[in-house]
Write a structure and sequence with these properties.
The longest helix is centred in the middle third of the chain and has 16 residues, at about 125-140. About 40% of the residues lie in helices and about 20% in strands. It folds into 2 domains: about 1-175, 3-Layer(aba) Sandwich (Rossmann fold), CATH 3.40.50.620; about 185-275, Pantoate-beta-alanine ligase, C-terminal domain (Pantoate--beta-alanine Ligase, Chain: A,domain 2, 2-Layer Sandwich). Strands 1-4-3-2-5-6 form a 6-stranded parallel β-sheet, sandwiched between helices. It starts with a strand and ends with a strand. By secondary structure, it is α/β, with parallel strands linked by helices.
């Protein structure tokens, strides 16, 4: 596996690959890699000649400095996992390689900015679009792969790609889960054994809403889901929404895609999850 830390190095390497007719796939990550991330790389390997995994804990998307500080960074372990899976390139730049001082960025992404995650983490998606725009411009991938767990993020990045007319195809890959149903997340390492058990209420509630879904009873289903999560010890619900899969506004009979999304704090750890209900 090739390892690069500067923009110049990776651009030289990829321009040569491109000159040889190779397609480039990008899997952008913040490290602390788990089987979910590795599944994105495997998907990229099936579709692209050269797969780049970036590891960059992006400071501009953290609304809480303490959250940024405690974000896990097990880089040697990450490198071992990438080498074991046969990833072609690791790009691991320092913050000052990506950001200059006093940069200003604002992209009008519409209502997506203020709904759900946007409401609870103001400014988060400006940071996400800022860094993804930089990586897309720098690496110029043919295809970029993202996980469904960050469903709203995928919609936001899709909006950015359309607004900026960027020549990259985006692919959303399915959520990878532990055997008991918990969505894989780099944050799961912060869960105590009790938190880990309490966290299962999220996936169980999503699955129950999916199996019981009735377009005429959305309000009742939402109330039942909120009650189930609020009644779980050690769990504090931020939101449970049954939303239109394209806009994330509340779903209705006109919605072609419907997704249920949840965010909750379990112990000291904030988790998100979702399930596609239709479409």
């Amino acid at each position: 596996m090739e390892k690069f830390t500067t923009k110049t190095q990776i651009q030289q390497y990829l321009s040569l690959a491109r000159a040889n007719g190779k397609t480039i796939g990008l899997v952008p990550t913040m490290g602390a890699l788990h089987a979910g991330h590795l599944s994105l790389i495997q998907q990229a390997q099936q579709q692209c000649d050269v797969v780049v995994c970036s590891i960059f804990v992006n400071p501009t998307q953290f609304t809480d400095p303490a959250d940024l500080e405690k974000y896990p960074r097990p880089i040697q372990e990450d490198i071992r996992k990438l080498e074991a899976i046969g990833c072609d390139v690791l790009f691991e730049p320092a913050v000052n390689e990506i950001y200059d001082n006093n940069e200003h960025w604002h992209l009008n992404i519409g209502t997506l900015e203020d709904l759900l995650e946007g409401k609870y983490r103001p400014g988060h998606y400006q940071g996400v679009t800022q860094v993804v725009y930089k990586f897309f411009t720098l690496i110029n991938p043919d295809v970029a792969f993202f996980g469904q767990k960050d469903y709203q993020q995928f919609l936001v990045i899709s909006r950015m790609v359309a607004l900026m007319d960027m020549p990259v195809k985006l692919i959303m890959c399915p959520i990878q889960r532990e055997a008991d149903g918990l969505a894989m997340s780099s944050r799961n390492i912060h869960l105590t054994p009790a938190d880990r058990q309490n966290a299962l209420v999220l996936s169980k509630t999503l699955n129950r809403i999916k199996s019981d879904f009735d377009i005429n009873n959305i309000a009742i289903l939402k109330q039942q889901a909120e009650a189930a999560i609020n009644n779980q010890p050690g769990t504090q619900l931020d939101y449970f929404e049954i939303a239109d899969g394209d806009t994330l506004l509340p779903a209705d009979k006109q919605s072609k895609k419907i997704v249920a999304l949840v965010a909750a704090k379990v112990g000291q750890t904030r988790l998100i999850d979702n399930v596609m209900i239709s479409g």
